[in-house]
Amino acid sequence: MLAVWITTLFLLNAARGREVCYKRLGCFSDSPPWSGIPGRKMAGLPSSPDAVNTNFLLYTRDNMVKYQKISATNPSTIKASNFRAHRKTRFIIHGHLAGADLPWIKSICRFMFHSEDVNCILTDWRGGSSGLYTDAVNNVRIVGAELEYLVNFLEKDYGYSPANIHFIGHSLGAHVAGEAGRRKPGIGRITGLDPAGPLFQYTPTMVRLDPSDAKFVDIIHTHAGHLFFDFAPGILQTCGHLDFYPNGGKKMPGCHQLRVPPATRDINDLMRDATIFGGCHHSRSHEFYFASILYPTGFLAYPCDSYEDFKKGICFPCPQEGCPMMGHYADRFPEKLKRVDQKYFLNTAADEPFATWRQKVFIKLSGVKKTRGDINLVYYDTQGNSKEYEVASGDLTQDDVYTEYLDVEINPKNTTKIEFLWNKAIFSLLWARLGAGTVDIIHGADGHRSTFCGRGTVAYGDPQVLTPC
Fold first, then answer.
1. Residue 331 marked ligand-binding
2. Taking Cα atoms as reference points, which of 237, 218, 225, 245 lies closest to residue 304?
3. Residue 102 placed within a domain
4. Does the residue 424 lie in any domain?
5. Mean of the pLDDT values across residues 319-323?
6. How deeply is 35 buried, as exposed, middle or buried, from its count of CB atoms within 10 A (0-12, 13-18, 19+)?
7. Are residues 332 and 382 in the same domain?
């Protein structure tokens, strides 16, 4: 009988889990949902606050290059700093193995200073994120508690409203932001940049970033999938009010890392390798974000059920209420809080600054009755840049209309000229001539239609300047 009681007590204690407490930050346990549930079988407690060593490094327009270290445990550092209570405050939070990521964090602050006067605070928790992935996952809660502690201090001593705070977290940093928001109600905004998937995907909302963690939560997915099947470190499920899936959210154009089949089932080894071999896709989320600061209209995203529907043009153009801009200005979308789990899709360019403007083009040909080749449009801007896009290839017939959706890297507001260009197939007639009878362009942002005429025909390889009809 005694053995039965001992076994029962052991099982009850195991179910309750272990707990560790810290004077400033409170207690942390490894009871469910923090461990021992589907998708989160790991068991562990966070490291001590001293070991995690969370530091808050302030940048402002007054100190754009050299940070000022501030701390709620040493209030004089805040008083002596350039922190100003009348400004909005944006916290930038890195993820696992973030040593190489710190330059982008400094860059994102400087990009912000081009357009706004803010307190930009780098949340440096490398002491808790540089080891095993599973340890870093446990330490997310410590950093979230440190953020809560600082926000509480600013609210109490400076009258600073949590509504003026924006957490921007990459990978595990997104869940740090979620934990801080869960602990501190009223945070204005959280942006998750490809939030980490392993040990968070399809777990209870208490564990991961979700729409209840701030007044507005927006997500950019760039390497979403399943770690053991797709070798992808990002979360696939929606976890915000607006979830953006650029290029489908899984693989990014311009990233050419070798796809290495997992040689292990160990999550720590897989996450380390995913950082090495898939880092480009994962990093695109923050690259898109700071490009959006300078090119806001170039990241317009369309509400759609799937990426396949988006590519087919089913969700084109923007609906009457408009489309949100992925990235820095997503909070300007009037319908952002209409519901949670809203999916938005867009395509980006392969190279910086990644911005594109989606258009639907219709080309009606004139000239030879039938030939083979390809037809293209070439766009020019005020800086002398040009980009060429194929509209159709194969059999080309006079008076037929050829339609294509283009993601143009030239801002329509800066477009100075559009040319029609065609190339013949190998065995086509040398003397064949084609022209664009009319070219209609529908702009995705507002459905506005522009019509151009080609005036005659041209030989293959010769550009034909289009002019408004």
1. no
2. 245
3. yes
4. yes
5. 95
6. buried
7. no
Which tops the pLDDT comparison, 334 or 371? 334
Residues 326 and 396 in one domain: no
The dihedral of CA 316, 322, 328, 331: what is its sign?
Answer: negative
Whether the Cβ atoms of residue 375 and residue 390 lie closer than 8 Å to each other: yes
> Which is it for strands 88-93 and 63-70: parallel, antiparallel or unpaired?
unpaired
Q: Are residues 279 and 361 in the same domain?
A: no
Asked whether 223 and 171 are in contact (CB, 8 A), the reply is no
Claim to verify: residue 285 and residue 394 sit in the same structural domain: no
Do 314 and 432 lie in one domain? The reply is no
**Is the model's pLDDT at 425 over the cut of 80?**
no
Annotated binding residue at 210? yes
> How many structural domains does the chain have?
2
Handedness of CA 147, 174, 244, 33 (dihedral sign): negative
Going by pLDDT thresholds of 50, 70 and 90, the confidence category of residue 398 is confident
Q: Is residue 11 part of a domain?
A: no
- Amino acid (one-letter) located at 100: A
**Residue 458: which CATH number?**
2.60.60.20
Structural domain ending residue among the three candidates 346, 377, 404: 346
In three-state secondary structure terms, 325 is strand
Q: Pick the range with the lowest mean pLDDT from 48-62, 143-157, 251-265, 453-467.
A: 251-265
pLDDT at res. 230 = 65
Mean pLDDT estimate for the chain:
89
Q: Look up the CATH number of the domain holding residue 68.
A: 3.40.50.1820
pLDDT of the residue at 11: 37
Residue 271's pLDDT band, with cuts at 50, 70 and 90, is confident
Number of H-type helices and E-type strands within the chain = 11, 22
Distances from the Cα of 342 to the Cα of 323, 338, 383, angstroms: 12, 9, 36
Boundary of a domain, candidates 290, 312, 346: 346
Q: Is the pLDDT of residue 8 over 80?
A: no
Pull the structure tokens for residue 138.
Answer: 């446990």
Domain that holds residue 421: 357-468
Residue 179 has pLDDT above 90, yes or no: yes
Pick the more confident residue, 108 or 148.
Answer: 148
Q: Is 399 exposed, middle or buried (0-12, 13-18, 19+ CB in 10 A)?
A: exposed
Residues tagged active-site: 171, 194, 282
Q: Dig out the tokens for 413 from the structure.
A: 């507001």
Q: 289 and 374 share a domain? A: no
Backbone φ/ψ region at 330: left (φ over 0), alpha (ψ -120 to 50), beta: alpha
Position 204 confidence tier, pLDDT thresholds 50, 70, 90: very high
